[in-house]
Amino acid sequence: MGKRYFCDYCDRSFQDNLHNRKKHLNGVQHLRAKKVWYDLFRDAAAILQEEQSKKPCRKFLQTGQCDFGSNCRFSHMTEADLEKLNAQVQEERRAKEQQRDGIAKPPGTIEEWLEKTAKRLGSAQTNSADPEEESVFQYPPGWPPVHELPPSLQAPPPGGWLVPPNLQWG
């Protein structure tokens, strides 16, 4: 069968040889998929600049849909969308300026975090009447009921796992 080439952008594979790979990498489907992928990581300022330079798509404004979809050379953003995007860009600029000027609060140190954690744990122990009943382990929200979990995801028993005396590892 030979080696196969898998394209992450297009989510497809084909026999790997020079002709097939070159044909795929220069194909319209691959180039569109690659553009869509990189557009996911563009910042709001670049998107706003591009959308403002485009004329509005008449078909999209009249019917709410366009045959060309994301490949349309006209803008599918309404005035409200452009205003929201502009507000987002302004907020990002303000945040960058504040960070550059030192106005933004620097992230806390590890010592501050340890002090907060110690205070929280200390207050939790003084507030609880019986600290042994308080469960230290909590399952993440959205997990299935405890009895349906596999043993590897269940909390250990209160006294720890029982180890048989004649157990040998290795």
Distance between the termini: 41 Å
Low-confidence stretches: none
In sequence order, what are the helices and strands, one letter per element? EEHHHHHH
Radius of gyration, in angstroms, nearest whole number: 29 Å
Strands ordered across the widest β-sheet:
1-2
Main traits of this protein?
170 residues; mainly alpha; two-stranded antiparallel ribbon; 6 helices
Description:
With 170 residues, this protein is mainly alpha-helical. It has six helices and two strands. Strands 1-2 form a two-stranded antiparallel ribbon. Helix 3 runs antiparallel to helix 5. It is extended and about 75 Å long. The mean pLDDT is 82.
Element layout with pairings:
Layout: E1 4-7, E2 12-15, H1 18-25, H2 28-39, H3 44-53, H4 58-63, H5 79-101, H6 110-127
Antiparallel strand pairs: 1-2
